[in-house]
Write a structure and sequence with these properties.
The structure is a single chain. By secondary structure, the chain is an alpha/beta fold. It is 54% helix and 13% strand. The termini are close together. The chain has one domain: Rossmann fold, CATH 3.40.50.300. It contains 7 helices and 5 strands. α1 crosses α7 and α5 crosses α6. It catalyses: shikimate + ATP = 3-phosphoshikimate + ADP + H(+). Monomer.
Length: 175
Amino acid sequence: MKIVLLGYMGSGKTAMGRMLARQANLAFVDLDHYIEQIEELSIPEIFHRYGEGGFRQIESFHLRQVMEHQDHFVLSLGGGTPCFNDNMDYLHGACTSIYLSASPIALAERLACSTTKRPLLKGKTGNELLEYVRQSLSQREPFYKQADYELSVETLSVEESGVALVELLKKNHIL
């Protein structure tokens, strides 16, 4: 069983992935953390050293490594992972994918306190952050919408989102 969580930064992929993995007794892999461990560089360092294009190549390589060499896991992707290098096409049929969706306003509110840790958000605050989220989400959402399932996390806490995710997977006979 391979369950992949995707969505924009701040949608709760990592927190919900950990929770789901614990409840389903599966391994948990956060793709960004996996990349940092293997590359021995932080994501901001990889962006600085290789640029976004270089990072996306590294990210796609490691996505395929995880998918091909591990079984029975929950994987949380980086926000941009589905949008580059045919990664969504690759995931189709290889896993169960779930898009954790929320509005630009909700995402910007969640991200407001973590812009320094996220290379694409560095230095953005207030309306500038909201406009960036609005614009980039509109570009990414067509890829996200290709997921097998969509779960709105707009108004849910992490715990409520986790319960809703488990219910979705049970209802569809995945868990």
